[in-house]
Amino acid sequence: MSTLHIMDHPLIAHKLTIMRDKETGSKDFRQLLNEIAMLMGYELTRDLPLEDVVIETPICKSTQKMIQGKKLAIVPILRAGLGMVDGLLSLMPVAKVGHIGMYRDPETHNPVEYYSKMPADIEERIVILVDPMLATGGSASDALTMLKNKYHCTNIRFMCLVACPEGVARVQKDHPDVDIYTAAMDEKLNEHAYIVPGLGDAGDRIFGTL
Predict the structure, then answer these.
(1) Catalytic one among 17, 108, 145, 209?
(2) Spatial separation of the C-alpha atoms in residues 19 and 28, rounded to whole Å
(3) Is 0.70 surpassed by the pTM of this model?
(4) Is-catalytic flag, 204?
(5) Cα(180)–Cα(49) distance, integer angstroms
(6) β-pairing verdict for 156-163 and 72-78
(7) DSSP per-residue letters across 40-101
(8) Which of 39, 64, 113, 159 is 20 to 30 A from 136 via CA?
(9) pLDDT, tens only, 44-88
(10) Partners of 103 in the beta sheet?
(11) Residue 157 catalytic?
């Protein structure tokens, strides 16, 4: 079974509370999402392997640590996932970025795929799949299936801003090898498949399309 990591750092909790407020506008919402993504990325990459390298400081030669040749890729689920990319790239500027386009059918609440594009060597990379909301888990599960079956990815982590028990259960059932990283675990889904208390539609709030 995959591991659920809830990153309840005080700075993350503070920023997320402001994002939840319905009075917070798109500009501040985008900035806060960017900042939280960067903070979460710091923890998500904590176990990246290190190797010894010899450098020369202004004083002398010295053996120090660098990340051990692991390639990274950030893959947002469009469109809301785009709001988390810049924060992660600020930590990992050499990471490649792929894209998966999905939307939720308003009647069935099921995800519908319309686009995907990946780096040529995506199967060799540690993939960080990002989407702000883990609600029903349908989009995340389908995106993970695509990464595995179509692009042959074997090392994937899923990062979201807000999750709920239903979404976590779906992803862990379908993909027990993929760890989930979230800033908050909310109460439940409502009858419209929105997370409660949640923060509304993340894509609409990011791009001002309410």
Answers:
(1) 108
(2) 8
(3) yes
(4) yes
(5) 19
(6) unpaired
(7) HHHHHTTT--EEEEEEE-SS-EEEEEEE-S--EEEEEEETGGGGGHHHHHHH-TT-EE-EEE
(8) 39
(9) 999 888 999 999 999 999 999 998 877 999 999 998 999 999 999
(10) 112
(11) no
